[in-house]
Design goal:
GMP Synthetase, Chain A, domain 3, nine-stranded mixed beta sheet, four-stranded mixed beta sheet
C-alpha cells in the first residue's frame, strides 16, 4: 500500500514537468515576423505584408553573419487579418510567429476606412504583443515600409522604432504610440487616439533592393512625419510640425525640444533648448460649461545666439524668457484650434471634465465632439533660462565695436 501511495505521489510531482513541453515549437519551424504592413486589397479587403527575419544573415557570430539580405517580405490577401495570415502559409515553409513583431504599419487608405476591423485580431492573439508600435503611412503603401532596408541597423524594423524614440527624446513632434495606446483612446469617451505618421521620399523604386546598402547617400528617406488624428476609429486628418509638437506638449510627453525667437529684428536669432518641461491640464466649471486651463512650465538653456545679446544681463534673460513663453503659447493655441476644427479631442479634455464633474460630463458626453469644438481653452506658460552654455557673450557683439 505504501508503495502504491509513493508511486502516485511520484507521478503527481512529475506530471507538471512532463506537461511543460506540450506546446513546444522548434526554432527551425518558425518564421519570425518582425513587422506587418496592411494595405487596401483589390480582390480582398486587405493586402498584408509580412517582414520575416533571415536569422543566418543577421547573426553576430565570428563570421559576421551571412552575406544575403536580413529580411524577406511575403504578401498575402484576405477579408480579415487571420485569413491573410493563414493564406500566407501557402508561400512560406515555416509557421508565422508574432512574439517578436515590433511594428504594425497601416496605409492611409485603410486608416481612413477605419481600423476597427483589424484591432481585434491584434489585441486577441496571445502570441502578439500589444506594446507593438503602430504607424500610419502617408501617400505610400505600408508594403514599402516593411520592405525597406537600413544601413545602420541590421534589422530594418529597428530603424523605425529607434527613430520614433529619438524624435520623442530630442525634437518632440512624435512619441511612441503602441496598440494599447490606440485601443485606450478608441474606447475612451473623452479622448480620441493619435498615431505617428511615416513618409517615404526619394527613389521609391529602390526600396527593398540590395543597392540600398551599397551607397553612403540614401536613395530614399523614410522618416516620421506628423500625427494622424482619429475619430471613432477612422483617420480624419493630420497635424504637422509645430502643431504636432503642441499635441505632444499638451499630453505632457515632450522630453526635449528647441524654441526659436526673434531678436534685434532678426528672425530665429536665439534658440532655447529645453532641459525639462511639465504640463498640467485642469478644468474649471463656469456657468455650467467646462473651461480648460493648460499650465506649462519649462526650463532650458541658450543653445544658439546668432545676434548681439548680453546673456550676463538679467534683464535681457527675462526678455528672452517672455519671448519663449509667447512663442510656446501661440503654438499650443494653434494646436488646440486645429484639433477643435476637426472636432477630435485628442488631448483627453473630456476625461478631465469627467474627473472634475461626472454629472456635467454625463450631459455632455453624447455630443462631446461639438462641445469640444466650442470649448474655452486658456494657456499659461512659464519659461526659465537656467544657463547660457559655455559662452555668455556671443562673438556677434565684437562686430559692433
Amino acid at each position: 500500500m505504501k508503495k502504491i501511495i509513493s508511486l502516485i505521489l511520484l507521478v503527481s510531482f512529475l506530471l507538471p514537468i512532463l506537461g511543460g513541453c506540450w506546446n513546444q515549437k522548434e526554432l527551425t519551424d518558425l518564421a519570425f515576423v518582425m513587422a506587418i504592413g496592411i494595405d487596401k486589397g483589390e480582390n480582398k479587403k486587405f493586402d498584408v505584408s509580412f517582414q520575416i527575419v533571415n536569422p543566418g544573415n543577421v547573426s553576430s557570430g565570428q563570421n559576421g553573419g551571412g552575406q544575403g539580405l536580413p529580411i524577406a517580405v511575403y504578401k498575402s490577401s484576405g477579408d480579415t487579418l487571420t485569413e491573410a495570415a493563414r493564406k500566407a502559409t501557402k508561400k512560406i515553409s515555416r509557421r508565422l510567429y508574432y512574439a517578436h513583431t515590433n511594428l504594425i504599419a497601416v496605409s492611409e487608405e485603410v486608416a481612413r476606412n477605419g481600423l476597427l476591423d483589424i484591432m481585434d485580431a491584434l489585441d486577441r492573439d496571445p502570441e502578439f504583443r500589444t506594446t507593438t508600435e503602430l504607424v500610419i503611412m502617408r501617400d505610400t503603401s505600408a508594403e514599402l515600409l516593411v520592405s525597406a532596408l537600413a544601413n545602420l541597423d541590421k534589422m530594418p524594423v529597428n530603424k523605425i522604432t529607434k527613430e520614433i524614440k529619438a524624435t520623442e527624446a530630442m525634437f518632440g513632434e512624435n512619441m511612441s504610440i503602441n496598440i494599447d495606446d490606440f485601443l485606450n483612446g478608441l474606447i475612451s469617451k473623452g479622448k480620441e487616439p493619435i498615431v505617428n505618421g511615416f513618409k517615404i521620399t526619394g527613389s521609391k523604386e529602390t526600396v527593398g533592393k540590395a543597392k540600398e546598402l551599397e551607397t553612403t547617400k540614401a536613395l530614399f528617406v523614410l522618416a516620421a512625419d506628423g500625427l494622424a488624428v482619429f475619430n471613432k476609429g477612422k483617420l480624419i486628418g493630420w497635424i504637422d510640425h509645430e502643431k504636432a509638437r503642441g499635441v505632444i506638449w499638451i499630453l505632457d510627453r515632450v522630453k526635449s525640444t528647441s524654441v526659436n525667437v526673434d531678436w534685434n529684428g532678426k528672425k530665429n536669432a536665439i534658440t532655447m533648448a529645453l532641459l525639462r518641461t511639465k504640463t498640467k491640464v485642469s478644468v474649471k466649471i463656469r456657468n455650467e460649461k467646462p473651461v480648460i486651463q493648460i499650465a506649462i512650465e519649462d526650463e532650458g538653456w541658450i543653445s544658439e545666439a546668432n545676434t548681439d545679446v548680453d546673456l550676463t544681463n538679467p534683464t535681457e534673460i527675462e526678455k528672452i524668457d517672455k519671448l519663449v513663453e509667447k512663442e510656446i503659447k501661440q503654438q499650443i493655441e494653434a494646436t488646440v484650434k486645429k484639433a477643435q476644427k476637426m472636432k477630435s479631442d485628442i488631448f483627453g479634455f473630456g476625461e478631465s471634465v469627467h474627473r472634475k464633474n461626472p454629472k456635467l460630463w454625463n450631459k455632455l458626453k453624447a455630443n462631446w465632439g461639438d462641445h469640444f469644438a466650442d470649448l474655452e481653452v486658456n494657456v499659461k506658460v512659464d519659461s526659465y533660462i537656467r544657463r547660457e552654455g559655455i559662452r555668455t557673450k556671443p562673438f556677434w557683439s565684437d562686430f559692433n565695436k
